[in-house]
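go over this record:
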Amino acid sequence: MRYKVIYLFALLLVWGCVTYGRDFATAPVKNIQTKVTTQQEVFGYFGEPVRKGLENGYESWTYSFHRFELGNLTSSKDLYVVFNKDGTVRSYSFTAK
């Protein structure tokens, strides 16, 4: 019985507050301009992305941060950037809660 109480307490501590990704500043998002802002500038604004990938042959970077408290999403922000072959921003999207 004692182990069940300890297990339940530990589970509640872990479940109480969980984060995914890495927090990043949102103010520089307004500085992003398609065909102007470079990969180096994006890296300078936000650091290393959580994920890198390809979208139709173009490099993409994803920045994500999600915070859960007691199982509920309390804050969330995602920045998705696709780069042209010359290293400038092709497109981007930003969402936040």
User: Anything to note?
Assistant: The domain at 18-96 is CATH 3.30.1450.10 (Beta-lactamase Inhibitory Protein; Chain:B, domain 1). The chain has a mean pLDDT of 90. The beta strands are 17-21, 51-55, 58-69, 72-83, 89-96. The chain is about 25% helix and 45% strand.
